[in-house]
Amino acid sequence: MTLFARLLFRVKSKRHKITEAALILGVNLGTLSPSGVQRPNPIHNNGMVASKRNKNLMKRTARVYLNDLNVSKFLIVREFLGQCHSIMQYFVDLFWQRQDFSGKLADLPTVHRAKKKFGITTRLGQALAKQASECVFSVHQKQRKRKPQLKWHTVTLFYHFVTISPFKKKGFDWCVKLIGSGAPKLVIPLKSTSVINQRLAQGWQMSKTIRMGLKKGRLWIDFIFEKVRPPLKTQGRVVGMDSNYKNGVVFSDSQVVGQDIYQRIQEFKKRQKNTHAEIKSRLGQALKKVDLSSTKVLSIEDLKKVKQGKRGTFSRLFNRRLSHWLYRTLVQLLERKCEEEGIQLVVKDPFKTSQFCSNCNRWDRRNRKGDRFRCVHCGYQSHADHNAAHNRRAFRLGGSLWSPFLLKFKKSKFWITIETSLKPCWVITEVSTPIF
Ligand SMILES: [Zn+2]
């Protein structure tokens, strides 16, 4: 992180202090996990699938495309998805108009309005209103000003609408039955996929809920798998990871995988499709070879500095973007792997959030000494990690993933946008060494 050694930060707009922003955002110091925005789900809280929102559950999905579905069934499902799409958009419009960004379940009069208008059941109305409300909530959280337009025809079907059972006759493995309640009555036979078989073999439980959607004219079903998250390991080594796009993924315990990926990228032709999908699957395969069984903590860098490539097939800009994408994908895959194996994933802090005073909004590298945070300007004291977590939350750096949208490069200055709930305020950082 030597590149960040000479960063100079200053807050331009003191009116919207970061601490205030954190308060407006309802940030509860330290206790809000990255998934903390997930609100309790009223449908599940009726005691029906009480374990669903258990935070100790890991979730994964497996997508199956319904290529074998006959035409009449396809048309029925497509029409249903289209109907759900317009009803959801209706709810989105309604919530947006009401400025209702709470993400709560819609009240009955609202549901009944849609029921009358579209001739659907209350149950379906409620399920769709819930999805619309979550959509509005998340868009509002992301500070987007424009009303969301639902792009995909995707619907979550709870077990009131669908049952999943093994298919009894030959030729198929699963029988997904839409059982009415507002959804059409329909039997969809499915073939199992290797991902589904693998998950089941590894002890994952298939959830009763599915997601269904239409993508580029193809219907798909997402099965959801759940498993109790293993406790974090208490014994083992601390391993660092570095990835360099060209040298593959390098671990500090001398494991190296994925050296072939860069070479494969160079073989791609410019307008080739599915390049991302292939690279992702290659990355996944490479990571499978990594043995982290004796690892307790895996440390990775949050922000990836990208070295400019030598001349290759693609432009420098594309190479850089691809490299960022690769790194984000890699981090996502690592996050999953670590979660499944009980390894703590530690992200090094490139923003020096632990040196920033959340009280007086000043940066000073003398502020942090070991575990203690003590501001040399205002005297504010706190635990260093506590202070850093607060800052990170306020800067929207939450979670372990680096958000590329936070950084802007402008006239040789490096900007970080800090988004508060009302107005954005800016922190200018002057960088003596170019970061990219
Ligand atoms: Zn201070």
What does this structure look like?
The chain has helices at 18-24, 42-45, 71-98, 108-118, 122-141, 194-201, 260-267, 275-288, 316-341, 384-394; strands at 8-11, 57-65, 153-157, 162-166, 174-179, 185-190, 205-215, 218-228, 237-243, 249-251, 256-257, 295-301, 344-348, 368-369, 372-374, 381-383, 407-410, 413-418, 425-430. With 436 residues, it is α+β, with helices and mostly antiparallel strands. The chain folds into three domains: 2-37 and 347-430, no CATH class; 58-228, no CATH class; 237-342, no CATH class. The strands form five sheets. Strands 11-10-9-12-13 form a five-stranded mixed beta sheet, with helices on one face. A four-stranded antiparallel beta sheet has the order 1-19-18-17, with no helix packed on it. It has a four-stranded antiparallel beta sheet with strand order 2-8-7-3. α1 (18-24) packs across α10 and α3 packs across α5 (122-141). It is globular, with a radius of gyration of 24 Å. Mean pLDDT is 73; it is low at 1-52, 304-310 and 398-436. Zinc ion (ZN) binds next to loops. Residues 327-391 form the Cas12f1-like TNB domain. It comes from Coleofasciculus chthonoplastes PCC 7420. Keywords: DNA-binding. GO terms for molecular function: DNA binding.
